[in-house]
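New to this. Look over this protein:
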Amino acid sequence: MRIVDGAGVWTQPPAGVANDWVEHLRVPDLSVGTYCIPAGGLDDQRPHTEDEIYVVTAGRARIVTPDGTAEVGPGSVIFVPAGEEHRFDEVTEDLSLLVVFAPAYGSRSAVRPTGSDRG
């Protein structure tokens, strides 16, 4: 067992950075991290090579995918399949997301992304 401290907790992105991604746990079959976007901020992520689940722990925004859009807030759980375009926009309150990747983030890509590639 392991308690994953800090997962899903809001963190202000560093100065000059649009958002913040921190990976808290990584094993071959999954990874867990926190993705934070400040109110009015930019979500500049690109599709991932792994399936992904977001759990909104704080804030409000809209998620946009090719299939449509949805308003999300605390308690919302969002599944995004590998390769699907998606982004959060209209971030009206500081947005904190607990993120679970399966398998682990970047494990299916030729080059493991860095934190700045996560977005």
